[in-house]
Amino acid sequence: MRYERSSSLFINAQNSIPGGVNSPVRAFKSVGGHPIFMRSAKGAYLIDADGNTYVDYINSWGPQILGHAHAPVIEAIKKTAEKGTSFGTPTELETQIAELVCSMVPYVDQIRMVNSGTEACMSAIRLARGYTGKEKIIKFAGCYHGHSDSFLIQAGSGAVTFGTPSSPGVTQGTAKDTLLARYNDLASTSSMLEANEGEVAAIIVEPVAGNMGCIPPQPGFLKGLRTLATKHNVLLVFDEVMTGFRLSEGGASTLYGITPDLVCFGKVIGGGLPVGAFAGPREIMSHLAPSGPVYQAGTLSGNPLAMSAGLAMLSELHEKPKIYDQLAVLGRVLAQDISTALNERSVVHQINQVGSMLSVHLCEGPVKDFDSAKAGDNERFKALFHHMLSQGIYLPPSAYESWFLCACLDDSTHNRTVEAFRSFR
Ligand SMILES: *Cc1c(COP(=O)(O)O)cnc(C)c1O
């Protein structure tokens, strides 16, 4: 494949955009080489600036669960755009999507729309703090909740120490309110709660972790968190930005049968436009301005284009819930066949898969938390990534990202993918 146009576009972009991209993982830093600039996409395929076609396993990092340029979503956006793109007033569309979400996610009475997953998590934590009157939060190493200050915290030496900022610009003052526990480790959470009794507002967790590869919760983990949160009078916040409307209509909480106090959405909820949201029972949500004292606002929140795209997407998922079973089968078969292909080549690996989320780790496994995810062979992953790219298979350009499957994948994309794995050396 030739990437001449992509390469020259990237060189140009670096002049006027830091690093040439508007979000770091797009830059191929962890796999090396120049990022591929895309021109268009349709169904399961991406088409780049040089005209190369790829089977896409990112799907815009999650939103395109029904495939790219899905006709009902595009139609809804066009129809709405003709009537004007933003009014700064309430519109009926906002209530329609709110009611739909309330009907799809059982424990949600009210929802507030924002413009990204980052905003959703940041605002949910403010609400949790305002509601409980407490300041600290517990997060899990390797879980990503967007780029706001409180969440950019890395593990210190021990699980019970205060976090240290993982980016310049995050203050020590902010970092000290974020406590770090180990994913799939209830004991670390429990001792942290005990050591900070009366000070913790919320535990925030990805119910299926998707930002250190795909890491399922071990049996009892989410249930244990629920019990601990209730016992210590702490809100349990599920960050379902990735898993919401992807793993089931009601997200991971429905899949695992655990009810959080607040939930954050993003990605699928916007149908490919910039949307995030946080939601929960009326009792908590009513503390939000203007009905309550916890301030939160947004000029473009609930934007009509974004709401119409999200509404079209969620309506279809709600009408055809079988899609989730089909995607889960697709994921299972893909995981099995990739594993067989890698075994043929004697590549040591571990595949984690939940529904339409999947990750291939080049280590012996099991991969169940951030430390075990880091044990993967990154050099080998780079080689795998570039091999797959050369075969027209677009994987996430990092060993720490989950793949996202879409409903447009078929036998042809499946065979092409498995063949590409078979020729990896
Ligand atoms: C993507 C993601 C976010 C951040 O969403 P943005 O829209 O990129 O700000 C937050 N939490 C999780 C679990 C995510 O996967």
Commentary on this structure:
The strands form four sheets. The chain has a seven-stranded mixed β-sheet with strand order 4-12-11-10-9-5-8, sandwiched between helices. It folds into two domains: 4-69 and 321-422, Aspartate Aminotransferase, domain 1, CATH 3.90.1150.10; 71-319, 3-Layer(aba) Sandwich (Aspartate Aminotransferase, domain 2). α8 (251-256) links the parallel β10 and β11. Residues 155-161 have low confidence and may be disordered. It has helices at residues 4-16, 71-81, 92-104, 117-132, 172-175, 186-195, 221-231, 251-256, 282-285, 304-319, 322-344, 370-374, 378-390, 411-422, and strands at residues 38-42, 45-48, 53-56, 110-114, 136-140, 153-154, 164-165, 178-181, 200-205, 235-239, 262-265, 276-280, 350-354, 357-361, 393-394, 403-404. The protein starts with a helix and ends with a helix. α2 packs antiparallel against α10. By secondary structure, the protein is of the alpha/beta class. Bound molecules: pyridoxal-5'-phosphate. Pyridoxal-5'-phosphate binds at residues 116-118, 121, 144-146, 206, 210-211, 239, 241-242, 266, 276. The site of pyridoxal-5'-phosphate has 15 residues, from α4.
